[in-house]
UniProtKB/TrEMBL annotation:
The keyword Transmembrane helix applies. It comes from the Bacteria. InterPro entries: DUF4350, Ribokinase-like. The chain crosses the membrane at residues 15-36. Keywords: Membrane, Transmembrane, Transmembrane helix. Pfam families: DUF4350. It comes from Frigoribacterium faeni. The lineage of its organism: Bacteria, Bacillati, Actinomycetota, Actinomycetes, Micrococcales. Residues 48-222 form the DUF4350 domain. This is DUF4350 domain-containing protein.
Length: 387
């Protein structure tokens, strides 16, 4: 068999599918990165610059149309500077969806003396700014009336309460927007500032702001002061030596990995359905069949696989005996043994021992059994050949 090495063009043609798949995966990862990063504000849910249905850009534009100055910050230092200038005329919205802030940093936010709005906060934020409030988890959703004594919500009748639910445990806070899972809004108020815990976050999104009384709800909660600082904590707030791999990983990494995984699964399903056409490997030399046989024999010898080597000889012998005795190509071993033993008037147990049962204990037995196979095949040939 004469073969030659594959050319560069042949290799590129054979790898065409994987090159296309890799290009699609890279393009998808880049798209996810661009959409998901957005400077830390654009592609995230409830992002003030996110125009997607899950974003909150519409709320920001409505607030600005009402004359409210909305500014976005991504670090605790910048937030403190923005709020401390005029805390009495400034509200602070905190959306720590990635859990960057520590307990000490929440305490620092509580000392800013400004009205604070928390979007679906965790328990550490509640313990620092809203003691007595417990996070219960996701809310099943639906529409509800405020049903509380908060004056700014008194005119509302129907608000989308999908998001997170909270419970009040022995505090003086006002609980609003009751659902089957808990409360969609909790508000603390004193003589200087207030803390509003918002779990009904879908009402603030672009996709729902025009439904029910959601727009009025957003203005009532976020439009109480002339200025609103929209604080999105980032990895820059993580103390040196703190944080975990999950908190320090950009938000676009996980969807990118999921996309690559799905592309790999699709490739495996597509390519695993069939073996594909046989491909002749091109080599620069001519390999004789005898060399291949000798090479395999040396491998069997080196690994001590005497029985495996003998089985290869037996398979060939059985095939030739089947044809010589007129049996079908798919004849079983028992049929071959029966036909050969009756043809040679030999003991079936002895014939079966040579063809199947005998195991070589050493190289001498292997050679002896190999000779026995050859002798058996010659005897059948003589018996089946006319004189």
């Amino acid at each position: 068999m004469t073969v030659v090495t594959p050319t560069v063009g042949a290799r590129l043609r054979s790898a065409r599918f994987w090159l296309v798949l890799g290009g699609v995966a890279v393009a998808g990862a880049v798209a996810v990165a661009v959409i998901g990063s957005g400077g830390g504000t654009g592609g995230r849910p409830l992002g003030p610059a996110n125009a997607a249905p899950a974003g909150a850009k519409a709320v920001v534009e409505v607030l600005r149309d009402e004359g409210i100055d909305v500014s976005v910050t991504t670090t605790l230092d910048a937030t403190s500077t923005a709020v401390s200038g005029d805390p009495e005329r400034t509200s602070l919205l905190v959306d720590d969806a990635d859990g960057f802030l520590t307990d000490g940093q929440w305490d620092d936010l509580g000392r800013l003396d400004a009205d604070v709005v928390l979007l679906s906060p965790g328990q550490s934020a509640l313990d620092a700014l809203a003691p007595g409030v417990t996070a219960l988890g996701p809310s099943a959703g639906g529409v509800a009336a405020p049903r509380c004594d908060v004056p700014s919500l008194a005119r509302l009748d129907r608000v989308d309460v999908t998001g997170s639910a909270f419970a009040i445990d022995g505090s003086d806070a006002a609980g609003c927007l009751p659902t089957d899972a808990g409360l969609g809004l909790v508000e603390y108020a004193d003589t200087t500032s207030s803390v509003t815990v918002v779990g009904a976050t879908r009402a603030l999104t672009n996709g729902s702001i025009a439904d029910e009384d959601n727009a009025a709800f957003a203005l009532s909660v976020l439009g109480r002061s002339p200025s609103l600082v929209w604080y999105l904590p980032s990895a820059a707030d993580v103390p040196e030596g703190g944080g975990t791999l999950a908190t320090l990983t950009p938000s676009w990494v996980t969807p990118s990995l999921v996309l690559l995984f799905l592309a790999g699964v699709a490739a495996m399903v597509w390519r695993g359905r069939r073996l594909g056409p046989l491909v002749v490997e091109r080599l620069p030399v001519t390999v004789r069949a005898s060399e291949t046989t000798e090479g395999r024999a040396r491998l069997y010898e080196r690994s001590g696989q005497r029985l495996h080597a003998l089985d290869q000889l037996r398979i060939g012998t059985l095939s030739r005996l089947s044809r010589a005795t007129g049996l079908a190509a798919g004849a079983s071993v028992d049929e071959v043994v029966s036909r050969v033993s009756s043809l040679l008037a030999a003991d079936p147990a002895g014939v079966r021992s040579v063809l199947v049962d005998a195991h070589p204990a050493d190289d001498r037995d292997l050679v002896a059994l190999s000779d026995a196979l050859l002798d058996l095949e010659r005897a059948v040939h003589r018996a089946t050949t006319p004189p």
